[in-house]
Write a structure and sequence with these properties.
Layout (H helix, E strand, L loop, with lengths): L4 E6 L5 H10 L1 E6 L4 E3 L4 E3 L2 H8 L4 E2 L9 H4 L5 E5 L7 H4 L6 E5 L11 H7 L4 E8 L9 E8 L6 H24 L32 H10 L6 E5 L2 E14 L7 E4 L4 E4 L3 E10 L5 E2 H4 L5 H4 L6
Parallel strand pairs: 1-2, 1-6, 2-5, 6-7
Antiparallel strand pairs: 3-4, 7-8, 8-9, 10-11, 11-14, 12-13, 13-14, 14-15
Helix pairs in contact: 1-6, 5-7
């Protein structure tokens, strides 16, 4: 498989294990990734994780601002196949129709479930008990192409978006190499997606980060862990925006109005929900670092905090 000429298109950390596997098993002739972004107060340009890895192993990198308008370097590269994984732009048909073996994508869900740009977050937020990886042929609409292979991954109750991200990233790399091996010997079957079973996982909006304690405690818990470590859920405590990072669902039923701080222990703040109490154990107060709630409570008047409303 080392003579297979591959163009890889990807951007975030999730894509790096996939690219590493391709470098080990194939001939990656070009990496396409998003332009460098300004970060921090000094607005310094930072390359994507995929670019950093490509540079470290000496693979040429192409970073078009708008790939719909700037794609000739890709179509002129004479690749056998193009492989994408969390690239971040819609791929034009001029690229999709270019390589002899087509374009395939590594997607972090069991399609047609969770089409879109945030399948890992939504798998947890929406209460799925399993997700996985799909390798599929690409077509002109997002995540609708024929399925080549899939592998399941259970979502544990202790998983958050970070742990699930890492599991699926490694799984995606492994399944891709197996799939390419089968593809080269013609032992794969294209399976059309059933659009009637499709669900969607659009990129997280700011309003989706705000916690709603009028839901069940399980729903709130899923939202917290589905948004950690990025972009993080939040609510207003003491009139300050507070990021909520870690929590657990208590055993007792809630007997007072939702969104009320109804219990304070040495290491947790209990907030009433539609059914039970959810206990917050790690937070990031506005303008401060992440901290355990037991440290946050030091110096606070707990009596003033108790029975206050969280917004």
């Amino acid at each position: 498989m080392k003579d297979l000429r591959v163009i890889f298109m990807g951007t975030p950390d999730f894509s790096v294990p996939v690219l590493k596997a391709l470098v080990e098993h194939t001939n990656v002739i070009l990496v396409v990734t998003q332009p460098d972004k300004e970060v921090g107060r000094k607005r310094e340009l930072k390359p994507s994780p995929v670019k950093e890895y490509a540079n470290s192993v000496g693979i040429p990198v192409f970073q078009p601002e708008k790939i719909r308008q700037d794609y000739e370097r890709i179509t002129n590269a004479n690749a056998d196949i193009i492989i994408t994984c969390a690239y971040g732009q819609i791929i034009p048909e001029e690229i999709l129709n270019n390589p002899e073996m087509g374009c395939i994508n590594v997607h972090a869900s069991l399609l047609p479930k969770l089409r879109g740009g945030a399948p890992i977050h939504h798998a947890i937020i929406d209460g799925y008990d399993k997700t996985g990886i799909t390798i599929m042929y690409m077509d002109k609409t997002m995540d609708t192409g024929d399925i080549i292979s899939q592998r399941e991954c259970q979502i544990e109750d202790t998983d958050d978006a970070g742990t699930l991200h890492d599991k699926l990233s490694i799984m995606g790399a492994e399944l891709l190499i197996e799939t390419l091996t089968n593809l080269l010997v013609g032992s794969v079957t294209r399976v059309k997606q059933n659009d009637s079973e499709a669900t969607y996982a659009w990129n997280i909006k700011r309003e989706e980060e705000h916690l709603n304690f009028n839901q069940t405690a399980k729903d709130v818990y899923n939202q917290i862990r589905g948004l950690y470590p990025f972009p993080k859920a939040y609510c207003m405590i003491n009139n300050e925006e507070t990021k909520i990072l870690k929590a657990y669902v208590g055993e007792k039923e809630s007997t007072i109005s939702s969104s009320t701080i109804c219990d304070i222990t040495k290491d947790a703040i209990g907030i009433s929900t539609k059914d039970k109490i959810i206990y917050i154990t790690m937070i990031k107060p506005f303008g401060k670092k992440e901290m355990l709630v037991k440290d946050y409570l030091n110096g606070l008047d707990k009596n003033k905090l108790l029975h206050s409303i969280v917004e």
